Amino acid sequence: MRDSVKLSSGRSYLAIPGPSIMPDEVLQAMHRASPNIYAGELVDMTNTLPPDLRKVARTEHHVAIYIANGHGAWEAALSNTLKEGDKVLVPASGRFAYGWSEMAEALGLNIEVMDFGLQAPFDLARVADRLASDRGHEIKAVLGVHTDTSTSIRNDISGLRGAIDHSNHPALLMADCIASLGCDRFEMDAWGVDVMVTGSQKGLMVPAGMSFVFFNDKAAEARAALPRVSRYWDWTPRANPEYFYQFFGGTAPTHHLYGLRAALDILHAEGIEQVWTRHEMLARAIWAACECWSEGGALAMNVTDPALRSHAVTALRLPSPRATDLRMWLEENLGLTLGIGLGMAPPDSSEWHGFFRLGHMGHVNGHMIMGLLGGIETGLKALDIPHGTGALDAATRVLSGNHSG
Ligand SMILES: *Cc1c(COP(=O)(O)O)cnc(C)c1O
User: Fold this and answer.
1) FRET pair for 96, CA 20 to 30 Å: which of 39, 75, 339, 373?
2) Using CA atoms, how far apart are residues 26 and 114, in angstroms rounded to an integer?
């Protein structure tokens, strides 16, 4: 009976760590004819975006808007601050640190990666030592990925600032908040971040295709000292909304702008602190369930210390090929799509089928997370994957706040 019945019709659930689920308000805001890009409503609306973006990033400084994905923001941040031959230090807790460093290398920068493995955050003492030994101040920037989406490690960006200051090092601090902005607490100015990059399609709940580079005056000085910056990536005109047409270096990404306006309205109506708390609660429910399942001996969370876990993505291990089996089963039978493992094993290896990830970023709430967890438990049962009991109970205890019930 079960084999012949598919239960995947109905609204599907994309629980991958980006792109994330888009609110109906965002989709509706984008469903319209193209506006006049030279004057009128679009121009006025666009001028409202930078102040609201700054509030999400907790900064008083500048924001440049790009028509690009996160990789574009990576390139923009580096291109506006560094020149060929400059050295960057890249502490790594996963694949995305390598991605950013490869971008730096392709731009002719001299990269030094400090690898802390796939299950540990930056060792800040070692980073501080490395900076202290750089007496000639050869290192011009430290690139820190806040949440590495591949491992779900969340790094201490404020601590990274401390490591730089400890040795009075002048290097710029650049943070990749593509997987954390609008999910995990991030305080650009209070944490002393000079440059921050993010994308539209994760915590900001807008389709992929728009990205943002936030920068302070120290970073702007680095830009001013460069002999040239490629015209398209130069952040100066893009951070100046008065020159709307120049701002986007061509036609504005009209529909993304409408979508972003709607998403920022949703974020501000909830309040950014509350947005962080919601993500934390939902993450705790997921971890509580995963802890129960892992008692069966098969499933394991990649990050053991809860204090080091992202609130937006959870990376999991399940012996190959069960992780892939589970993903396929859930998509086919329940309409639930989980994320693939990334950077944990080579994509053409058999171990690759031993990892998966849950995205819980942006437009997610309690009943969705209970649906996600209920779906996973169903798949574990259907595939006879050993798992401990009481996972859903444990999650409901977190979400209800009733730890005895
Ligand atoms: C998704 C992601 C990126 C890459 O963003 P794209 O939009 O896919 O280019 C970079 N860094 C982190 C931490 C990410 O999560």
Assistant:
1) 373
2) 39
Ligand 1: atom nearest CA of 69 is 7
Class for domain 7-20+272-399, per CATH? alpha beta
The pLDDT of residue 2 is 60
Q: How far away, in angstroms, is 202 Cα from ligand 1 center?
A: 9
Pocket residues: Cβ below 6 A from ligand 1: 18, 69-71, 96, 145, 147, 149, 176, 178-179, 199, 208
At residue 17, φ and ψ (nearest 5 deg) are -80, 60
Hunting for tokens 């970023």 — which residue is that?
361
Indicate where the chain has its CATH 3.90.1150.10 domain(s). Answer: 7-20+272-399
The pair phi, psi for residue 276, each rounded to 5°, is -65, -45
Which residue, 160, 158, 157, is CA-closest to 128? 160
Which residue, by CA, sits nearest to atom 12 of ligand 1? 178
Q: Where in the chain is the domain with CATH 3.40.640.10?
A: 26-269
pLDDT, residue 368, reads 98
| Global pTM exceeds 0.85 | yes
CB 355 within 8 A of CB 313: no
- The topology under which CATH files domain 26-269 is Aspartate Aminotransferase; domain 2 (3.40.640)
Nearest CA to ligand 1 atom 6: 70
Low-confidence ranges of the chain (pLDDT < 70): 1-4, 241-248, 405
Residue nearest to ligand 1 atom 15, measured at CA: 179
Task: Tell me the CA–centroid distance for residue 179 and ligand 1, in Å.
Answer: 7
Whose C-alpha lies nearest to ligand 1, atom 4?
70
User: Order of strands, edge to edge, in the sheet holding 110-115?
Assistant: 62-66, 211-215, 195-199, 172-176, 139-145, 87-92, 110-115
Q: Which atom of ligand 1 is nearest to the CA of 71?
A: 9
Q: What backbone phi and psi angles, to 5 degrees, belong to 61? A: -95, -150
